[in-house]
């Protein structure tokens, strides 16, 4: 299945002020985590849910797997087209928890306290997934192994690397980059790069 931009008639695939690259730049804050023993790795689903859920890496790999193709756009100005991902659709993850009626937002938690926020409806789009594979190869640690979010309709900082938790929330709380001046939503086609945009 292919997901590019939410298409308008006659539109291009590259948002304004972006440059297409064939490379995949490595950008992050903090250290790159390297896992030697995946038996110790877990994904926590918590917050505005009836009961917290902890999933192992094996649990995730045993869920139905999804393959998607999409374009990604970084807030720093590059776009990488025709990415192929494999992982677990966020809608599939939602079958593991029962949300409270107040849940409207998600805060994705990653290693070293890194976080990013988004509305629940963006997390649940058909194009959103938690990926372990890119272009047929297991993600490298630099690109988010063992699990990264892929939210391709928003700037790529919303596609957090090294995901360890998904917190469901009643109110929108800024994540790491949002607290440091990035836009609360980050739609590339509207150039929502910074909080003052």
How would you characterize this protein structure?
This protein is mainly beta. It has a single domain (41-190), classed as Sulfite Oxidase, Chain A, domain 2 (Alpha-Beta Complex), CATH 3.90.420. Helices cover 9% and strands 32% of the residues. The chain is built from 4 helices and 12 strands; from the N terminus they run E-E-E-E-H-E-E-H-E-E-H-E-E-E-E-H. Strands 1, 2, 5, 6, 9, 10 and 11 form a 7-stranded mixed β-sheet that branches. A hairpin with a 4-residue loop joins strand 5 and strand 6. The longest helix is centred in the N-terminal third of the chain and has 5 residues, at 57-61. The N and C termini lie far apart (32 Å).
Topology:
Blueprint: E1 2-3, E2 19-20, E3 42-47, E4 53-56, H1 57-61, E5 66-73, E6 78-89, H2 90-93, E7 105-110, E8 115-119, H3 120-123, E9 129-134, E10 137-138, E11 148-150, E12 163-169, H4 176-179
Parallel strand pairs: 1-5, 2-6, 3-12
Antiparallel strand pairs: 3-4, 5-6, 6-9, 7-8, 7-12, 9-10, 9-11
Keywords:
197 residues, 12 strands, 7-stranded mixed sheet, mainly beta, 5-stranded mixed sheet, 4 helices, disordered N terminus
What is this structure, in a nutshell?
The chain has 197 residues and is mainly beta. The protein has helices at 57-61, 90-93, 120-123, 176-179, and strands spanning 2-3, 19-20, 42-47, 53-56, 66-73, 78-89, 105-110, 115-119, 129-134, 137-138, 148-150, 163-169.
């Amino acid at each position: 299945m292919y997901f590019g931009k939410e298409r308008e008639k006659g539109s291009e695939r590259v948002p304004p002020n972006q440059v297409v690259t064939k490379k995949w730049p490595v950008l992050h804050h903090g250290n790159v985590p390297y896992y030697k023993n995946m038996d110790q790795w877990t994904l926590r689903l918590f917050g505005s849910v009836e009961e917290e859920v902890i999933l192992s890496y094996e649990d995730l790999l045993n869920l139905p797997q999804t393959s998607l193709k999409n374009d990604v756009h970084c807030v720093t100005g590059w776009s990488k087209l025709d990415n192929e991902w494999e992982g677990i659709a966020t809608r599939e993850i939602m079958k593991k928890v029962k949300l409270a009626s107040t849940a409207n937002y998600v805060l994705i938690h990653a290693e070293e306290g890194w976080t990013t926020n988004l509305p629940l409806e963006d997390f649940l789009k058909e194009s959103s997934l938690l990926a372990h594979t890119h272009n047929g190869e297991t993600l490298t640690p630099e690109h988010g192994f063992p699990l990264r979010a892929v939210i391709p309709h928003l700037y790529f900082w919303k596609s957090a690397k090294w995901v360890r938790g998904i917190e469901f929330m009643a109110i929108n709380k800024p994540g790491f980059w949002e607290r440091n001046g990035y836009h609360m939503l980050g739609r590339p086609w509207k150039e929502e790069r910074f909080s003052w945009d």
